[in-house]
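Module 6 notes. Inverse folding takes a fixed backbone as the condition and produces residue identities as the prediction. Think of it as a translation problem where the source language is geometry and the target language is the twenty amino acids. Below is one complete input and output pair. Work through it position by position during the lab.
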């Protein structure tokens, strides 16, 4: 079964310029109570390095995020490397 996000592929999501240039794998995903999504690499970033892209763009950068496309609101998904499995963590 192929997983997909229930959100429209044009949905805006937050990430960093490092993820978008493929210099950092996505290792942290947050699905907030307001429905917003964040996709981050393993580096500390400052506000000027945050970018807003479409869900479709972030899937193209790393299709493995589809593995957690059903991440419940209020949860995070974390992994050590792109090759490791996702671990789901409740923010509550």
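Target side of the pair, the amino acids:
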């Amino acid at each position: 079964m192929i997983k997909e996000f229930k959100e429209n592929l044009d949905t805006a999501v937050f990430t960093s310029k490092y993820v978008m240039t493929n210099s950092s794998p996505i290792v942290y995903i947050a699905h907030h109570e307001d429905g917003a999504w964040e996709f981050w690499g393993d580096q500390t970033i400052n506000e000027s390095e945050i970018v807003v892209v479409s869900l479709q763009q972030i899937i193209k950068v790393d299709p493995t995020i589809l593995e957690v496309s059903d991440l419940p609101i209020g949860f995070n998904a974390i992994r050590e490397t792109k090759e490791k499995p996702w671990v789901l963590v409740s923010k509550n």
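Reference fact for the lab report: Residues 27 and 79 are 5 Å apart (CA to CA).
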